[in-house]
Each structure stands twice: as structure tokens, then as C-alpha cells.
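Ticket opened by: R.M.
Priority: normal
Category: complex prediction / small molecule

The reporter submitted a protein together with manganese (II) ion and asked that the result be attached to this ticket for the collaborator who will pick it up next week. Submitted input follows.
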Amino acid sequence: MTTYLEANKQRFLDELFDLLRIPSVSADSAFKADVRRAAEFVRDKLTAAGLDKATLYETPGHPIVYAEKIVDPTKPTVLVYGHYDVQPADPYELWESPPFEPTIRNERVYARGACDDKGQFYMHIKAVEAMVATDGLPCNVKVMIEGEEEVGSDHLGMFVTENKDLLKADVILISDTSIISNETPSLEMGLRGLSYVEVQVTGANRDLHSGVYGGAVANPINVLAQMIASLHDENGRITIPGFYDKVEDLTDEERTELAKAPFDLEEYKRDLGIKDVMGETGYSTNERTSIRPTLDVNGIWGGYIGEGAKTVLPSKASAKISMRLVPNQTPDEITDLFTKHFLSIAPPGVTLTVTPHHGGMPYVTPVDSVEFEAASKAFEDAWGKKPIPTRGGGSIPITALFEKELGIKSILMGFGLDADALHSPNESYGLFNFYKGIETIPYFYKHYAALKQ
Ligand code: BES
Ligand code: MN
Ligand code: MN
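Result attached by the on-call engineer:
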């Protein structure tokens, strides 16, 4: 297997480069044809890797790519999930090399989607190819790569519900998360959920002269800023009534266990160029970004932002606000609590609308399962170290849906690093991580097949 990888290293990377050159930005309809081109590319590579029935399943949005190889119905089946769509690359001017012209610098591939998730799901296609070409597959494999993850997986839910037989499997394997570092491999056992809303505050029926009306009529920007500021108290806690009601506190043992993961606060601050961190009192930085829920403004706009000064009292102000959720919080409930609270604190001088966007459920995977054990052993084989179980801060909403609809648990075997700059300019993925992933994945199949017997 390792020999096969060695012999094909350059080709694997060339193929990834071809995939990265396709700007499959799901959020922007200008890229619709490119998104499809990426799906077709993935389909063809699945066929070339030796999988059967590689097909594009159409949806009202972007297509879902599916393929499978059933070697023996009595063997366990692994369902690989990933996404071939990427986040918009804006702002382009902050990229050191163009986002869709993959470039290697310092042993890393720079391109939009290099880590999230093209570089990561492509490892699975190459790992399957290697197994098929050498010792054969120890498990059956089904592969489902979607094109709408970055915009909320709107149509994947329906596809899953309607294709339960097709997707029947024993475990879902996903590489779309991170490890602590290349020296300290880790396995995520949980992801946060998401609730996302857009709010708009309207004052007067038109923009006004701020000298003639200012001081007497609500300024929607002033009002919105004040309302947003009131959403956190002095301890960094979210003030929405009921927000924490369902949040379960971890036991001291669980917190101690999580705190064992190596973390260097000084290095963290240096990397981000900040003098200090900030967050909920009583929790460590790692806890704030994993086991605690949060509320963040993602964008805010209104009024005059052109050159020079314009003395205007704007008619409208808006913001996009996201909340990361932890187990037992549901996006519907939290969106509801947010909406009620935000409406209740709006002064009578303005009207307020709250529009919910996509959301997602939090997810935890049990660590005392054969699935987790197989993944842990795979890391041990390839990295020479046991991976540390961690809780991740990001969201892959579809994992909770897989569990609900298919009754299958997901294993989050990601190989990225926080430094890979996902969703940011200059996203990258280490060559080490790409190849190490391809090496690690077959060990999972091997151990899983053995443990399931
Ligand atoms: N791969 C990420 C999620 C992720 C990143 C998990 C790093 C753990 C570590 C995924 O593509 C993503 O960006 N998810 C979105 C949610 C989605 C609904 C847009 C997110 O977390 O913001
Ligand atoms: Mn992703
Ligand atoms: Mn992403």
C-alpha cells in the first residue's frame, strides 16, 4: 500500500491540482457551471479509482456525486462523505497566489478548498484506489460527495431521506475537520451546531439630514449597535433568556480530560496578532471554542460608507448573526429564543425583522465504539501515536441528520490544521497531511473490518 502511494505521489497531487483549479463556489450562481464541472471531475475519478456506479444525482441545487464498491455483502460498509464545493475566495487581493491556481510554498498547497474539503475528501478516493489496486478492499465502500455543504446542505437531507437503501452502511467516515498538530494527532468526537439569522432595523421611511432630525428620530445603526452590544454581559455570557437552559455542563473529569490536549496560549496569540484572548469567564480558550455556545456578528452594514463625510441619519441597518450550538441546543429553538428576545429589546422608534438562514444540529460521537477504536488504531499505525480525542468548534450539520435518518454514526477523521486558513484568503493544506491521510485511511478499513467480525 505504502509502495503504491510512493509510486503514485506526483500523480495524486497533479489530480488534486486539477480539482482545485475548478472554482466550485456553491454560494455564487456565477460559478454554477464550474460547480457541475467539479462534480463531473469527482465522478470520473471515482470510476478511475475502481468504484462502480459513479453517478451525479441531480437536486434543485448542485448535484450530489455517488459511487460504491460492494466487494462482499457480508463485510461492513463504510460510507465516505465529503464536499466538493468551496467558500467564495473573496477578497481576492489578499491572496498571495490566485485562489484557483494551486501553488506550492513551504510544503503546502495554497488554493481555495485545498483543505476544506477538496484536499481532504480526495485523500479518500486515492486511498480507495490504492486498496483496490493492491490488497483489495477489506470493507465495502460507498462514497457521497455533495456540492452544497458551504451553503447549508439544503438538498442533501431530501436525498438522504429518499435513498436510505442506497446509503445503507455501518459507519460514516468524514475528513473535514482538523487535528491539533502534525506532532499531536487528534480525533474529533463532537461538532457544534449552528443557528444563523439576519436582522434588519428600520427607522424613518427615508434617509434624513442628521442635523435636521438627528437626536429626535431613532438612528437604526445606533439602535442596532446597542441591541447587539446587549447580547453579551460583562462575563461574556449571552443574555438571551433561556439560551443556556439545555446546555449541559461537562463533568470535572471530562474537562480535565479535554484540557490534556497540548495548547500554547502565547503561540495562539502570536499567530493571531492579538494581545489577549476574550470570551466567557470561567472557561479556557479551548473550551470557549468547543464545548461552549457562542454568538457572533458576521457582518454589519448601513448608512454611508463612501469617501468623505455625509451627514445622514440612515433609514436602515442590518447584521448577520450566527450562534454556535452545543449538544441539546437545537437551531429551531435557539433561533426562536433569539427572535423573541431581539424583538423584545427593540425600542418603539424602529421596526425590526429577523430572517432565519440555514442552521444545523450539534453532534457528538461515542468514543467507546468500534468505529472510534478503528479510527484511533489507524492513527496509531500511521502516526505512531494515539490520537487525542477533542471536541471541534466548527459545524458539519449533516452528521446529525445522518444519525437521525440513517441511524449511522460519523467518524470525524480530519487531517487539517487550524493554520490552514479555512474560509480565509491563502487557504492551504500541507503535503504531509495530504499524503499522511492517504496512508492512514486504509488502516481504518483494515481495523474496522477486523473489529466488526
Ligand atoms: N469543514 C468545515 C467545518 C469544520 C472546520 C469543522 C474545521 C471542524 C473544524 C465545514 O466545511 C464548514 O465550514 N461548515 C460551516 C457550516 C455550514 C452550515 C456553512 C461552518 O462551520 O461554519
Ligand atoms: Mn468542510
Ligand atoms: Mn467550510
